[in-house]
Amino acid sequence: MSRIKNQGRLFLELIDELRPHWRKDPGLPNRLSDWLVRHRAGSRDRRLYRELAYTAWRILPWIEDASPETLVQRVAQHANRTPDTAAFIEHFASATTEPIGPPEDLLPDWLSSQNSAVIVPTQRDTLLQRAPLWIRLQTDDANAVATELTELQIPFEPSALIEGAWKLPPESRITQTHAFQKGLIEVQDIGSQALLHSLPTPPTGNWLDACAGAGGKTLQLATLLHPSGGTVTAHDIRPKPLRELQTRQKRAGLTNLTVSRSVAGKFGGVLVDAPCTGSGTWRRSPQLKWTTTTARIQRAQEQQMLLLARFSQHVEVGGLLVYATCSLCHDENEAVVETFLRDHPAFRPAPLIHPASGQNLPAGRLALLPAELDSDAYFVAALHRT
Ligand SMILES: C[S@@+](CC[C@H](N)C(=O)[O-])C[C@H]1O[C@@H](n2cnc3c(N)ncnc32)[C@H](O)[C@@H]1O
Question: What lines the ligand 1 site, CB under 6 Å?
Answer without folding.
Answer: 192, 210-214, 216-217, 236-238, 241, 273, 275, 307
